[in-house]
Amino acid sequence: MINQLPEDMHLNHAKDYNDHRVVLIKRFIKDGKKTVLSFHSHHNGGEEDETLHVVAPNLELPWWDRYWVGLIGACNGIVCISDFYDIYLCNPARHELLKLPVRPFVYPDGCSKGSVFTTNGLAFGFDPSSGDYKVLRIISFSAGSFCLPSVTAEIYNLSTNSWRNLDADLPKIEHPHPCFPALIHGSYHWCAASTKSRLSVSRMILSFNICTEAFGEMEFPCYTADDTRPSLVVLDDSLAFISFKNPYPQRLPSIYEQFIDIWVMVEYGIKESWMKKFSLGPLVGMNGPLIHEPLCSWTNDKLLLQSEDGYLISCSLKNHSQETRKFDICGQRDTLKVIIYQESLVSLSKRHEGLSWWKI
To answer: Are 183 and 148 in contact (CB under 8 A)?
Structure first.
């Protein structure tokens, strides 16, 4: 456990910006073998600036000395954190932590108990219709490299502290590790691929509505899939599709050129409304940082990205300037995850006193 701080420590450090929204960054520090949450703001005395100054002490997660730990999402001041197996709910402002119960996996029909399972996607949110917090877990099962995987889903309710199965036939999520889905209009969105046939792969956007608990599918915009890594963000209150071209340089990285195309869905759910809004690149060259992956939208005119050497980078979309800025915030490559977080002093432990909440 880390040293305990006063329950309102974070809010006391965060009074210089509106509505207590901060940039919450998770990273793994290799030398210290620790996972750290840090809290930053681009507001300084009520004015916006180009820095990400620290607004609260770092929060260490010392029991997580492993490489893969993901920020799954944040809602009402509660953050969902997970690796491949364990899932936690955390209120950083109150230093409260809840480990969700581990549920024995229920193998779907046609899968032997020797099948390999992988947590393929996660989502966390609040259902206003029931007044309950929920965690969705999408799991894929595979009996071998020559077998098509079977994908199922289950959902956790905080009110009952239990899991239950969802009846759904799902495609496979593109990302191999837990990732933060794009949330808009009460639904979560992932890049997915259909695995119903070995001969062809059909890619689409998979959505999940936290209230109705219904899955849906939407089509990608028309883009060139070769040598690209697709991802989804919310940009200017619209669902946005990012195509990151040639993300894996093999030779001559100092002169390597990378490109990012961004489409915005003007009318939600309407394929024909996809509009290419930004074409960025070449983003790097002899004098620029090599980009590893896009992370999230920061403001309506900025993207946050991770460099190949593990540093946080911003890229301006304003007037197509493509201006980049490298921050003095870094971690082991692939471990940098970012969400926009709004603090809250609401105590979940007092509302759910029967659960085993920890103080960190």
So the answer is: no
- φ, ψ for residue 194, nearest 5 deg: -75, 135
Within-domain flag for 172: yes
In a domain, 161, yes or no: yes
Strand 87-91 versus strand 78-82 pairing type: antiparallel
Given its phi and psi angles, is residue 45 left (phi above 0), alpha (psi -120 to 50 degrees) or beta?
A: left
pLDDT at 20: 60
C-alpha to C-alpha distance for 257 and 249, rounded to whole angstroms? 9
**Coil, strand, or helix at residue 140?**
strand
Closest by CA position to 71, among listed 95, 54, 88, 57: 88
For residue 311, being part of any structural domain is answered with: no
Contact status, residue 74 vs residue 83, Cβ threshold 8 Å: no
Radius of gyration of the chain (CA): 20
> Residue 266 has what DSSP assignment?
S
Question: Could you tell me the mean pLDDT of each successive run of 10 residues in the chain, 360 residues long?
Answer: 39 47 86 84 62 85 70 90 86 86 70 69 92 90 64 90 86 61 92 69 88 93 78 92 73 68 94 92 63 84 87 85 85 86 77 70
Write down the pLDDT at residue 41. Answer: 85
With beta carbons less than 8 A apart as the criterion, state whether 123 and 115 touch. no
Residue 300's pLDDT is what? 80
d(Cα 201, Cα 210) in Å, to the nearest integer?
A: 27
- Structural domain that includes position 197: 99-218
Number of domains in the chain: 1
Residue 45, domain member (yes or no): no
pLDDT of 250:
53
Helix, strand, or coil (residue 176)? coil
Residues near 231 by beta carbon (within 8 Å), at least 6 away in sequence:
191, 241, 242, 244, 293, 294
Report the distance separating Cα 343 and Cα 107, nearest Å: 38
